[in-house]
Each structure stands twice: as C-alpha cells, then as structure tokens.
TrEMBL record:
Protein name: CASP-like protein
Lipid metabolism among keywords: no
Subcellular location: Cell membrane
Subunit structure, as described in the record: Homodimer and heterodimers.
Organism: Hordeum vulgare subsp. vulgare
Keyword ATP-binding: no
Membrane topology type: Multi-pass membrane protein
Domain of life of the organism encoding this protein: Eukaryota
Primary site of residence: membrane
Transmembrane feature ranges: 47-71, 80-102, 122-146
Amino acid sequence: MAKLHRLVSVVLRLVAAVTAAAAAIIMVTSRETTNLFGLEIEAKFSHIPSFIFFVVAYAVACVYSLLVVLVPPGGAASRLLVMTDVVMGMVLTGAVAATGAIAEVGRNGNSHAGWLPICEEVHGYCNQVMGALIAGFVALVVYFLIIMHSLHAVTDTMCPCH
C-alpha cells in the first residue's frame, strides 16, 4: 500500500510540475504589439503586476513539485509537506484569482469605472493569457488532489484503525 501511495504522489507531483510550468511559460510568452490611433501599443505580461505574481507563483510551484519528489516518504518531513502543499495551493489560488480578475477587465472592461476592453485590439495576447489561466487552473486542481492525497497518506499512518 505504501508503494501505491508513493507512486500516486510522484505522478501527481510530476503532473503538477508540468502544468505549472506550462502555465508560467504560456504567460511569460504572452506579448502582442498593435497600432491604436497611430500609436504603437505593446501588451505583455510584465506590464501587469498580477500577471507577474502568476508567473512567479507557478514557477515556484513547478520547482517545489519537482523537489518534493525527492523527499523520502514517511516521518516528520512528510507531515511538513502537507502544510507546505496547503500553502502552495493557497498561493496558486490567489494567483489564478488575481489574474482572472484582470483578464476579465481586459476582455470586457468596466463601464462603471470607465475602463474600456483591450482584447479587441490585442486578441492574440488575451487568448494566450486565457490559455495560461486554463493551464493554471488545471495545475490548481492537481494541487487540490495532491493535498487530498497527502492528507490521506499522513492520516493513514497516524491512525492504524483501517
């Protein structure tokens, strides 16, 4: 049973690393230049702080997932990993939420604040940001599964009542 827990953990963490890396890479490469009223306007991820947060959070999640695969199962380290998994899940949730909110304003604007939508002008950029958000959400779901699996593995060893 311990080998199955370990295998599931490794597979989930590798999937999380790949999807987190994909989300960060897609966001980093999002860039488009257009002309608007004779002015050249460039849209790229580094112009928006929440997009930078997204990239950093998902890059850290990728590296963290790969490093955790090297931690031997059982013992105090695995209990600490449950806590860090929860923290990582919370950080990724914040990154997806912040990026999603800004992407929504970019796509639809905000008539109450007088903000116009920009996605009509930089359609490719907005589509790429949406792709990064989708990959980020998939990574977030995988992290949720990791947390549930880690909690099960830790509580299973603490309570031999099964």
